[in-house]
Each structure stands twice: as C-alpha cells, then as structure tokens.
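BACKBONE STRUCTURE TOKENS:
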Amino acid sequence: MMRHELKYLIPLEALDSLRQYVAWHTGRDLNARDDGRYTVRSVYFDTSRGAMYRAKKEGERRRMKVRVRGYNTILPADTVTLELKRKESSTAWKRKARMPLGEAEDWLTGLRDLPETDDVDAANTFRYFVLRRSLKPAVLVAYEREPFVGLHDPTLRVTFDTGLRGRFTSRLSRLGAEAPVPVLSRHFILEVKFDHHFPGWLRPELARLGAQRRALSKYVMTLDACARATHGRRASFAGGRQLRPGLLQTSF
C-alpha cells in the first residue's frame, strides 16, 4: 500500500512543547517501551558505487531503499524485517519479510536455504534485488523513536526521532552493534505518515515553529557523518567511481 511520508527538522528545544501538543491529539503506540520510545536499528544496503546514495543526493524522484531493520537490543536469534522501500516524492511503498537475523545473513550470502518467514514472495524479491544490483551492507543507522498513533485516523503515525547516530559496517550481523558516530545533536526529525489526509490539527503548530517540510534521508545523513568522522569529508561517489577500499568496509 502506498503511504504519504512527510519529514521536518525541528530544534531540540521545541521537543517538549511539540510532544505535549501531539499527545493531546493522538494515542501512544503500544509497541513502545515504558518510556514511550523504542530504538530503531537499520543496516542499509548500497552498491559499491553508491547508487542509492547518489539517487537521493541528485534528487531523483523515484528511489529505492534496501534495508534490514530491528528494534531495541538485537541478538542473532531475534526477528528482523527485510524491507524494500520505493519512494516517489513524498509517497512510499514497502515490501517486507520477517526472519531471524542470523538466518537472514546466511541466506543472503548463500550459506543456507530460505528461512521460515511471514512472506516468502517478499523475501525472495528482496534477495533477488540484492543479488541483481550487487548490494552490500553499507552503514548502520540507529535512533530513538517516540511514536504516536491517530485517534480518528488509524493510518496516521506521528514520530519523533532523536539521537540519530551510526557507523560503517560491511556485515548484517552488526545490526545490534553500538553506533558511536553522532549525526544530529541539536535537532530531531518529525515524521508524519498517513494514507489519505494530512492531520489538519498539526498545521498551526508547525506554522508556529516555522517548520518546513524537508527531503531528509537518515541513510545519506548518517553515511556523510561517518565519512566525515573517518576521512574528514562527506562520502564521495562523484562520477560513479569505485569507492576506496575501506570506505564502506570498515570493520568492527
């Protein structure tokens, strides 16, 4: 199903007031911890020439994201989600399959048959796309998500993403590793997701904050931050040149 996804970069000092405003119009996500949050962890895949990275940086309207996502503390036996996400402007479409992390890595590298999964077709489509495009793990992205759900529109989700951080990785099994490189320290990302209509009650508060919709990519932001921390500059894929050995293959 296609969904609309809008993102805003908000100063941290506005977090408490915006949280109070949003909470008045929404309900809590029951999947969150007692503190109302959960940790999101994703390993993003890309080609050795950064095709996914460049598609976003160059402003292509139609883009693909290929990632494996898990939540909170992740061990090899824990279930993760293999996700293909197609984006066109502010609209997104996803295909997902769930399976244990350790088995997913072995399967994607050809060491075992397809593990038990909730969607065989989506899993096979994910693996086909990874193999066809020669995709490899590129970076681990982690952040704390505070989710709210619509009271009158069950498709509405409003999320506050704080503490965005990451690290280079060449291994899917590092999904649960520490992510020591900070990406955002003075801002958080507000995401508004819905099927049909933007929530009218949110517009006045966004206008009061002067918040403008932004084309934000956590993958691109984290990759650039890790490249600056490691090499003193943003990731460079200009002209489709092959990456220097080690840029996306930094070990743990």
Remarks:
- The chain is about 25% helix and 35% strand.
- Helices lie at 15-25, 51-57, 101-108, 120-132, 203-209, 218-231.
- The chain has a mean pLDDT of 92.
- The first strand starts at residue 2 and ends at 11.
